Amino acid sequence: MVLEIINITKEFGKFRLGPLSITVNDNDVMVILGPTGSGKTTLINVIAGLLRPDNGKIILNGIEITNQPIEERKVGYVFQDPSLFPHLNVYNNILFGLRRKERESKEKIATVKKIIEDLDIDHLLNRRVDDLSGGEKQKVSLARILVLNPKVILLDEPLSHIDSLARDKLRIELRSILRKQQIPTIYVTHFEEDMYALADSIAFLDRGKIEVSGTLEEILGSVTKGSLILSLFFNKIISVGNYLTGEVIKCENGLTEFKVGLNILYTVGSFVPKSKIGVIVKREDILISKEKIRTSARNIVFVKIVDMVKIHDNMIDIYLKDNNLNLVSRITRSAFEDLGIVTGDYVYAVFKASTPHLIREE
Q1: What is the residue-wise DSSP string for 186-228?
Q2: What is the pLDDT of residue 54?
Q3: How far, CA to CA in Å, does 270 sit from each of 53, 166, 251, 256?
Q4: How far, in Å, CA of 179 to CA of 84, rounded?
Q5: Are 16 and 9 in contact (CB under 8 A)?
Q6: What is the pLDDT of residue 228?
Q7: How far apart are CA 153 and CA 183, in angstroms?
Q8: d(CA 247, CA 362)
Q9: Cα(333)–Cα(247) distance, rounded to whole angstroms?
């Protein structure tokens, strides 16, 4: 299953979406980032059939669905605010869209049961929806569209109204659930963490147009090389953390050793050996030294300075590289002057095992 958006446009007064084109494959979770008013919700409303585009085509698995009625598109849509029925319990909310014949099908009920287990909501089935947390409501909302076997999944900032601790946990669960579906998925957001946690591919949308798009690796690779020119909004989004992904080697006493490129790094936590984890390390948390220092920090990497970018009068970003490991350290101007470093120098990048923040696990 492949979703193709070809030269789509939609105008509202002075606002114009597009023309824009994107392709989302069946094993792809595309995260679309953009500021408020950039056209994110308009785009997925057009895909869902809630809005008719002025121009362009929507192709699903080789068939044009641009003018197809909503009910024939088989698009699953999860909104910011879950639209659950308060007079029904969780289980009946999940079954609501199924026809009576489907509800009586043993095969369909087995599928429903599997979706409920994957979402870990089997203990909620008899609960009233008013008694659920924000994260639980969104899981029920997602279950309700998955049981309908959609051909496309659209998610409009579904975690925006959930507290930060629940959001971190739900992001990791959501990535696993969406990957299992093998359905083209578009997730719109303005949160940097959603991009790192969920994306296979990324599109940056600003003022109705896609500024840049590509796989997560392509976008982040361009950022760490300092070669990607973006608007102020996106520079702000992606200039906070270093996203590192690697394979877990071993875990002992709550300390996990994982490999990024040829480098062995450490993070606090217990993870399954050979699993893949993604973590964020803030630029400000990476120290730089020209000499190897005595420190309790577990992560000490010998790296080359490939670029230096002045952020403002008092801060400088130092771009660092060693094989497949790319880092950016943000230091003060006084620290920069004390170090006396130039592009091409080799330095030690140092950060604690408690610094990496888990954002992805698979």
Answers
A1: EEEES-HHHHHHH-SEEEEEETTEEEEEEEHHHHHHHHHTT--
A2: 96
A3: 48, 19, 6, 6
A4: 24
A5: yes
A6: 52
A7: 7
A8: 10
A9: 35
d(CA 47, CA 26): 16
Say how many C-beta atoms besides its own lie within 10 A of residue 67's C-beta.
Answer: 10
Residue 248: closest CA among 220, 223, 267:
267
Distance CA 11, CA 51 (A): 11
Angle 106-118/134-146 helices, nearest 10 degrees? Answer: 150
Amino acid in position 112: V
What's the predicted TM-score (pTM) here? 0.85
| H helix intervals, 60-133 | 70-73, 90-95, 100-103, 106-118
**Quick check: 298 and 269 in contact, CB under 8 A?**
no
Cα gap 166→309, rounded to integer Å: 35
The whole-number pLDDT of residue 220 equals 72
DSSP 128: B
Hey, what amino acid is at 248?
A: V
> Closest by alpha carbon to 30, among 210, 169, 162?
210
Burial readout 168-206 (b: 16 or more C-beta within 10 A, e: otherwise): bebbbebbebbbebebbbbbbbbbbbbbbbbbbbbbbbb
pLDDT at 20: 94
31: left (phi over 0), alpha (psi -120 to 50) or beta: beta
* Residue 83: per-residue pLDDT: 83
User: How big is the chain by its Cα radius of gyration, in Å?
Assistant: 23
Contact 192, 240 (CB under 8 A): yes
Label residue 296 exposed, middle or buried (CB < 10 Å: 0-12, 13-18, 19+): exposed
Contact present, 118 and 196 (Cβ < 8 Å): no
The whole-angstrom separation of Cα 343 and Cα 327 is 14
Residues of the chain with pLDDT under 50: 227
**Which strands make up the sheet holding 263-268, listed edge to edge?**
263-268, 255-260, 241-252, 276-282, 357-361
